[in-house]
Amino acid sequence: MVQKRFVWVGLTVVLIVSMVLTACNLGGGTATPDVSTPIKLGGTLPLTGIYADTGRWVEQGYRYWAEEINSQGGLLGRQVEIVIYDDESDPQKAATLLESLITEDKVDLLLGGYPGTSVVPQMAVAERYEMVYISMGGHMTSFEQGFAYSFGGPPLMGQWWYEGFWQWMATLPAAERPKRVAMISVNNVIGLSVRESVYDGAARLGMEVVLNELYDLPMESAETLIAAAKAADADLFIANGLLVDGVMTIQTMKAMDYNPDYILQGVGSLIPAWEAQLGADGYYVFSGTPIDSQLPFEGIQRLNAVSQERFDVPAAPSYFLFGYAWAQTLQRGVEGAGNLNQQEIRDYLKTHEIDTVGGRFSFDERGLPEPYSYLTQVHPQGIALIWPLDIRTAEPIYPKPAWGE
To answer: Going edge to edge, which strands form the sheet with 80-86?
Structure first.
């Protein structure tokens, strides 16, 4: 009888231990993970379609981050595996594929998408499944939905995009500032968000907006828009668009001999394809950015060297840095939480300051850092940082020289 009692006691202990371990496994990451199983990260990017020139650089940033962290022992001691689907620059497909990554691929962590048109629906998907989502954001309105799991680390905030330009303009003598503004904007969340920055800045500096036109993608022709800007005698021309339409706009300006004192371009001039397609005609264009290869943050120089060696470019392209920084921000949250519990990752990011190649960030309740933007200008020697003064790498060139000079 005594021996039988010991048998039942032993079975009871085994059963209790088994139940505890099962409960831990159902509790969202409290059990010790199998370190031989990779952590799977999934996202979508426009690898084909109208945003592909930029989306492929974001992908390279993600993939290099994964390669680097795996060489250093992995994330939480586990190797990482990245799954990226091509959403073909289609926002609806981006949302559908992200949901599939969550429900079918069973990814552990999400990678943010690009551009803002796709990020808007993806942020809603991430929120529905309560998964942390770090990306450019879908501009300001996307961060005003009360989403708890989305972060811009760093964001590409259209409403902040030209802030560096307006701050620099305010330091110039009044006689050197433009007086008449012609603005064309792509008719989607990207162009409309960047356009808000123009309204605000032009009003602050007393500039008159003499042309304000919207256009759809793909742009068939820029001739009518450029003719109107030239006829309005605008000395500041602002194109709130992307690479392909931006290149067409510059080519049309040269063909029609419209050479305003200042050209301000939304997205596109910071991508290597800008100079590759335009050559010297793409010089002297101003833009904004929240990240750049010349900023004095830890890791930037290493990524510049990687880009030179792997991609044969003089420095790390901005969107390569974006992809790396978004993954790095997620990494900081995971390491801070010490596990893959989405709520704990979210709470860590909401309550701690983090360092990335994009700078040091702390996030507010919306998932945003404090507003900021750097002013850039395309020079013959490469992209120059113009504003603020403490990060300036070259003197601004203005008024814009004549075409061909």
So the answer is: 80-86, 39-45, 109-110
Residue 254 zone, left/alpha/beta (φ > 0; ψ -120 to 50; rest) = alpha
Q: Number of structural domains, the chain?
A: 2
For residue 306, the SS3 value is helix
Could you tell me the two tokens for 205?
């500096």
pLDDT digits (tens, 9 = 90+) for 227-265: 999 999 999 999 999 999 999 999 999 999 999 999 999
Average pLDDT over residues 374-391: 96
Query: What is the pLDDT, as a whole number, of residue 33?
Result: 59
Domain housing 103: 39-156+317-361
Whether residue 127 is predicted with pLDDT greater than 50 in this model: the reply is yes
Helix H, strand E, coil C: the string for 333-363 is: HHHHHCCCCHHHHHHHHHHCCEEECCEEECC
CB 275 within 8 A of CB 55: no
Domain membership flag for residue 400: no
Asked whether residue 76 is domain-assigned, the answer is: yes
Asked whether 47 and 59 are in contact (CB, 8 A), the reply is yes
Q: Give the pLDDT band (50/70/90) at residue 16.
A: very low
Q: What is the CATH number of the domain that holds 122?
A: 3.40.50.2300
